[in-house]
Design brief:
The complex is a heterodimer.
Chain A lengths: L2 H8 L13 H9 L4 H22 L2 H17 L10 H21 L8 E3 L6 E3 L9 H5 L4 H8 L5 H11 L5 H8 L3 H24 L11
Antiparallel strand pairs in A: 1-2
Helix pairs in contact in A: 2-3, 3-4, 3-5, 4-5, 5-9, 8-9, 8-10
Chain B lengths: L2 H12 L5 H13 L1 H19 L8 H25 L3 H25 L15 H7 L18 E9 L10 H4 L2 E7 L2 E8 L3 H4 L7 E11 L6 H19 L1
Classes of the chains: A mainly alpha, B alpha+beta.
């Protein structure tokens, strides 16, 4: 953004100022200039997407809410460190993803728990174990439930390393380049992990979509 | 083309990054491979459902963010102050004293402004600014409030906020309870009030600055009253007023 553009964005006399028309980056410039209420708009813009990203990442609504709020707080408190060369969304998701990673790291220091995944001998890929379960079968559980919510929850079963780029792409519509910036992965790795995640996703949801008892306006694929 | 390559191209196609050459190859493959066609169709539906399945964050999400920001800025200010002074114990003591003094001033001024609001049945002067300030334990103290003289029905945690400030305040105690203590719980400043049965009508007199109110029953103090039913009644009453105000 040129100096003239910056001045224009920050000029309170510019009339009429419809802040909803401003880009994320323009709003952040206003926040940096001391216009704190501009940040409310950014929170409003991103709260749903960030919350859903984290919800599918950590699988717990309370924890997702806590991390999302923490991410917004950190983004605001460190607003002076933000540079408009990066998109605000990339910056926000980087903060949130790092918060999740830190949580996982702390978890790893705790006593190990039984993993629901084992490593295949063929390609080293993680595959879900088949554990016998006496609870009502999926058909019984899914009848009458909201298919969209079930599909969204199914994404939580994708292995974590594939899930982060997958959710950033599918839920948050970030480009490969932005996902690379958030995750620190190489572009080719981002591409292959999203591809692998989609393969996992297909395996998980295919039986759900084929289930005639599920509600929703689904057609057979 | 073999299926693994086709799956890669399908994934790329979803991201609208497929070249014309690859697109032609993929179309050709899909025409002859049913499994890849299914893969494409399932993913396409899954993608749509995933996007439609987004849930809303809790209603008070933005408010909590504002609160978190205020808290973080205050903590940062205190850290800076301590670092600047570099006086070790005396620096920290000075910082705490400053914070407490600011809090007392804030509470006092707000009480003065809201002093026309009284809960029905509240004796004149009861819970006034001086009494309130005197009853505030030092920050860090976890001593339970003395509720012996308050004829308490139920204990509640009450967070009252003034819009635009995001500062949790005890100033509303006159309108929502008779006595209260202000002390940190799990790192947050929470106002605990022992509430009287007249609490519900009293919420209609909430000062105009209060836009958010969270009331959580914590402990049943008397077998005569149900904490949850009182909480529900109070919450309904307060939320109706606050919603109208917003």
């Amino acid at each position: 953004m040129s100096f003239a553009e910056k001045v224009n964005v920050l000029d309170p006399k510019r009339s009429p100022v419809d802040r909803t028309q401003l880009s994320d980056e323009e709003l952040m410039l206003r926040v940096q200039a001391g216009e704190k209420t501009a940040y409310d708009l950014l929170v409003r813009r991103y709260k749903k997407r960030l919350f859903n990203y984290l919800l599918r990442l950590v699988g717990d609504a309370d924890l997702a809410e806590e991390i999302a709020q923490d991410a917004f707080v950190r983004a605001y408190v460190n607003a002076d460190k933000y540079r408009t060369i990066a998109r605000f969304s990339t910056w926000l998701y980087t903060i949130a993803t790092n918060l999740v990673r830190n949580r996982y790291r702390k978890k790893k220091r705790r006593p190990p728990v039984l993993s629901l995944f084992y490593r295949s001998h063929d390609d080293g890929e993680e595959i879900a174990q088949q554990i016998p379960d006496d609870s009502p079968g999926p058909e019984e559980q899914l009848v009458g439930q909201d298919l969209r919510r079930i599909i969204a929850e199914a994404s939580e079963q994708i292995p974590e390393r594939y899930r982060i780029p997958f959710l950033l792409r599918e839920v948050n519509q970030l480009s490969y380049e932005e996902i690379r910036a958030v995750t620190g992965l190489k572009l080719g790795t981002v591409r292959s992990r999203i591809n692998r995640a989609r393969t996992h996703f297909r395996r998980i949801i295919e039986p759900m979509l084929a289930d005639p008892d599920l509600d929703g306006d689904m057609e057979q694929p | 083309m073999r299926c693994p390559k086709s799956r890669e191209l399908i994934s790329t196609a979803f991201d609208a990054e497929l070249s014309e050459h690859d697109r032609c190859e993929l179309v050709e493959h899909l025409a002859t491979c049913e499994d890849c066609r299914t893969h494409h169709a399932v993913l396409e539906k899954g993608q749509t459902l995933l996007a439609e399945g987004l849930v809303d964050p809790p209603e008070n999400f933005e408010w909590k963010v504002q609160l978190g920001i205020q808290r973080a800025l205050r903590e940062r200010a205190t850290e800076v102050e301590s670092t600047t002074f570099g006086w070790g114990f005396w620096g920290r003591t000075a910082a705490t004293a400053t914070t407490m003094a600011a809090l007392v001033l804030l509470v006092g001024s707000f009480l003065m402004r809201g002093s026309e609001v009284h809960a029905p049945g509240m004796a004149s002067g009861e819970g006034g600014p001086a009494a309130l300030v005197a009853s505030l334990p030092e920050e860090g103290s976890a001593a339970a409030p003395d509720l012996s003289g308050a004829r308490p029905v139920t204990d509640f945690e009450v967070d009252a906020f003034r819009s635009g400030y995001g500062i949790r305040t005890v100033a509303d105690q006159q309108s929502i309870g008779s006595v209260g203590e202000h002390y940190p719980i799990a790192g947050r400043r929470v106002f605990r009030s022992s509430l009287h049965p007249y609490l519900t009508p009293a919420t209609s007199n909430l000062p105009s600055q209060v836009l958010h109110l969270r009331i959580v029953p914590t402990k049943l103090r008397s077998a005569e009253a149900s904490s949850s039913s009182i909480a529900a009644s109070v919450r309904d009453s307060a939320e109706t007023i606050l919603d109208r105000r917003r």
